[in-house]
């Protein structure tokens, strides 16, 4: 089954900051292949809390080349799973985990390169995995990290990043930025246009970067992307992953035939058909009918729920994942897709 979760035991819980913990998992020998991953990928964790199934996506902060399997969970106010992870989970507890996925990835090459990352808050998680992998697998490559937080106390992996910097002084360069406290050897403020210009035009003037990795809230990603493009960085050199989706007004979608749509879903080689309200999303209808389809964030910021349209048309309320080329091929995020034709067929197997 494509949407399979596996029971994994928590090996260790590491307190990173007062508001964040890392969960390290034991991967049994027979699951090593299934849980092999690329730097930057995430896993979906599934658990029942008060009788309700909860799914959350978390990036791996470990590197695939260190034989660790570790995610970091920052506690958010009112967060159901993040509260559990930070306050109640213990080593030895079992969680249901889906194998790694995601497109925010780094694949090592043989030619030395320069890379840069702009990360804010818990957006550092997949970026740390990428940094470690660059340092291990591309011994001549260099990495510039710009990392924004409210304060030093809230800076996840602060000690680990400093240790990496001391170990690789000619290869890893870190600019810490704090918005609420003034610290030595750090900038005061937020990651904004002037920060990007400082890195590109002052501190690393003349350096050519192969890839920029951006991870954090949507406004930061949008502004950094814009200023990078103004500085001549091509779109395909900018990779990003959102950690929090901005609440946007839902796009009003008028289906050609207002009202009911005939929806057919193919998943795990089984076809199911339903009549659906055109104002609902494909994923909502699939879950309403107890289909075991893949999903995680339900907010259009991960890629777990991708499917392919094989007949009909749909539009997405929001899309921060799929490229124009992938959309042209018929791929959709089913958590965001509403039909715009009276018949819609989607295939979760053909992605």
Automatic annotation (TrEMBL):
It holds the Pfam family NAD_binding_1. Residues 261-351 form the 2Fe-2S ferredoxin-type domain. Residues 3-107 form the FAD-binding FR-type domain. Its cofactor is FAD. The keyword Transferase does not apply. GO terms for molecular function: 2 iron, 2 sulfur cluster binding; flavin adenine dinucleotide binding; metal ion binding; oxidoreductase activity. PROSITE patterns: 2FE2S_FER_1, 2FE2S_FER_2, FAD_FR. Keywords: 2Fe-2S, FAD, Flavoprotein, Iron, Iron-sulfur, Metal-binding, Oxidoreductase. The keyword Zinc does not apply. InterPro entries: 2Fe-2S_ferredoxin-like_sf, 2Fe-2S_ferredoxin-type, 2Fe2S_fd_BS, Beta-grasp_dom_sf, Cbr1-like_FAD-bd_dom, FAD-bd_FR_type, Flavoprot_Pyr_Nucl_cyt_Rdtase, FNR_nucleotide-bd. SUPFAM superfamilies: 2Fe-2S ferredoxin-like, Ferredoxin reductase-like, C-terminal NADP-linked domain, Riboflavin synthase domain-like. CDD domains: fer2 (cd00207), PA_degradation_oxidoreductase_like (cd06214). This is Ferredoxin. It comes from Gillisia limnaea (strain DSM 15749 / LMG 21470 / R-8282).
């Amino acid at each position: 089954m494509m949407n399979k979760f596996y029971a994994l035991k928590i090996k260790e819980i590491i307190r990173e900051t007062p508001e964040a913990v890392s969960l390290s998992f034991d991967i049994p020998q027979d699951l090593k292949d299934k849980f092999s991953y690329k730097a930057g990928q995430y896993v979906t964790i599934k658990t029942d809390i008060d009788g309700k199934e909860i799914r959350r996506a978390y990036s791996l902060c470990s590197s695939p080349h260190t034989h660790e399997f570790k995610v970091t969970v920052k506690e958010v106010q009112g967060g159901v799973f993040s509260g559990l992870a930070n306050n109640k989970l213990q080593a030895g507890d079992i969680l249901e985990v889906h194998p790694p996925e995601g497109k925010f990835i780094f694949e090592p090459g043989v030619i030395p390169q320069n890379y840069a990352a702009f990360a804010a808050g818990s957006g550092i998680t997949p970026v740390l995995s990428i940094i470690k992998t660059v340092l291990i697998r591309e011994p001549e490559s260099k990495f510039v990290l710009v990392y924004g937080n409210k304060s030093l106390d809230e800076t996840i992996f602060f000690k680990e990043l400093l240790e990496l910097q001391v170990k690789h002084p000619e290869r890893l360069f870190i600019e810490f930025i704090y918005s609420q406290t003034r610290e030595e050897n750090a900038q005061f403020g937020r990651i904004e246009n002037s920060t990007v210009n400082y890195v590109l035009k002052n501190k690393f003037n003349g350096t050519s970067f192969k890839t920029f990795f951006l991870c954090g809230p949507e406004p930061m990603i949008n502004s950094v992307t814009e200023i990078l493009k103004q500085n001549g960085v091509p779109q395909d050199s900018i990779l990003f992953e959102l950690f929090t989706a901005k609440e946007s007004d839902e796009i009003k979608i008028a289906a050609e035939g207002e009202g009911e749509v005939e929806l057919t879903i193919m998943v795990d080689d089984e076809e199911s058909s339903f009549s659906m309200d055109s104002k609902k999303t494909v994923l909502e209808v699939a879950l309403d009918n107890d289909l075991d389809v893949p999903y995680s964030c339900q907010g259009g910021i991960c890629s777990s729920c991708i499917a392919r349209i094989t007949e009909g048309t749909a539009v997405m309320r929001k899309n921060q994942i799929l490229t124009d080329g992938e959309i042209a091929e018929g791929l959709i995020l089913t958590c965001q897709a509403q039909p715009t034709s009276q018949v819609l067929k989607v295939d979760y197997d053909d992605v």
